[in-house]
Task: inverse folding
C-alpha cells in the first residue's frame, strides 16, 4: 500500500511493546517504522523517522512529558499518542497541555488503539471517552486560557450547537453524523467552522468550553485555574 500510516512505539516494557506492534502490524494500512524504550529514543526516532504517530508511555526513562513537549515543538508533524497505565486527571490534562494528540489507557482494546492511530493520522484528536468524561465533570474546572470569552459560543449556528452538544459526549464524527442524519464530511465542515468561531485548536478544547457554559456564571470564577489544553 502506498499511503500507510507510519507509527513508532516507545515503551519501557519489551513484551508490551511487542504486543502493540503485533496489534498494529496486523492492519494493512499501518506500518511500524521504529521502536524504543526511553525518552531519548522517542525524541531521536521522532526527528529521524518522522512517523505520522508516535505511541509513548509517559513512564519512559527520561520523562514522558519532556518527550511530548519536545516532539510538539521540534517535530510538529508527528502526533503523539500517550498509551499508559495512569488515569490521573492531572496527568491527562498535562499531557494534552504539552502537546499530546491522544490519550489511551493500557487496558484499551486493540480495535480502539487501531482506530485512535487512524484518527490521529488524519489530524484529529482522541481521548478515551471515560477519561474525557471525567475531565468534563471535574468540579474545580475552569476554562482553558485561550477560550475565556464564553460569548464566542453565541456565534454558533443552531446546527453547529447541535454538533457541539453531541461532541461533548465523546462521539466520533461518524457517530455525530448518524445522530443528525448528516454525512461525515458535513460534520467535519461544521467542526472546522466551530473551531474557528471558538478560537480553539481542537475538538477537546471545544468540548471543554461547551461544558464550561453548562455551569453557572457564579461557579465560572471559581474555576479559573483549569489546566490549558494544546493538543493541536
Result:
Amino acid at each position: 500500500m502506498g499511503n500507510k500510516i507510519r507509527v513508532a512505539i516507545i515503551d519501557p516494557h519489551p513484551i508490551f511493546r511487542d504486543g502493540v506492534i503485533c496489534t498494529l502490524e496486523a492492519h494493512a494500512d499501518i506500518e511500524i517504522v521504529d521502536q524504543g524504550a526511553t525518552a531519548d529514543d522517542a525524541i531521536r526516532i521522532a526527528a529521524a523517522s518522522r512517523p505520522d504517530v508516535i505511541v509513548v508511555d509517559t513512564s519512559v526513562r527520561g520523562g514522558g512529558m519532556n518527550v511530548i513537549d519536545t516532539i510538539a515543538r521540534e517535530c510538529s508533524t508527528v502526533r503523539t499518542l500517550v498509551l499508559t497505565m495512569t488515569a490521573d486527571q492531572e496527568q491527562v490534562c498535562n499531557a494534552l497541555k504539552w502537546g499530546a494528540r491522544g490519550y489511551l489507557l493500557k487496558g484499551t482494546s486493540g480495535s480502539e488503539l487501531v482506530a485512535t492511530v487512524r484518527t490521529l493520522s488524519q489530524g484529529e484528536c482522541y481521548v478515551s471517552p471515560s477519561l474525557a468524561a471525567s475531565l468534563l465533570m471535574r468540579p474545580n474546572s475552569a476554562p482553558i486560557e485561550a477560550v475565556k470569552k464564553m460569548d464566542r459560543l453565541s456565534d454558533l449556528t443552531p446546527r453547529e450547537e447541535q454538533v457541539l452538544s453531541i461532541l461533548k459526549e465523546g462521539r466520533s464524527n461518524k457517530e455525530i453524523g448518524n445522530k443528525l442524519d448528516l454525512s461525515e464530511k458535513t460534520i467535519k465542515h461544521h467542526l472546522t467552522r466551530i473551531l474557528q468561531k471558538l478560537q480553539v485548536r481542537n475538538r477537546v478544547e471545544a468540548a471543554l468550553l461547551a461544558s464550561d457554559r453548562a455551569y453557572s456564571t457564579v461557579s465560572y470564577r471559581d474555576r479559573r485555574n483549569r489546566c490549558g489544553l494544546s493538543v493541536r
Strands lie at 5-10, 30-36, 53-56, 79-84, 102-105, 126-127. The mean pLDDT is 81.
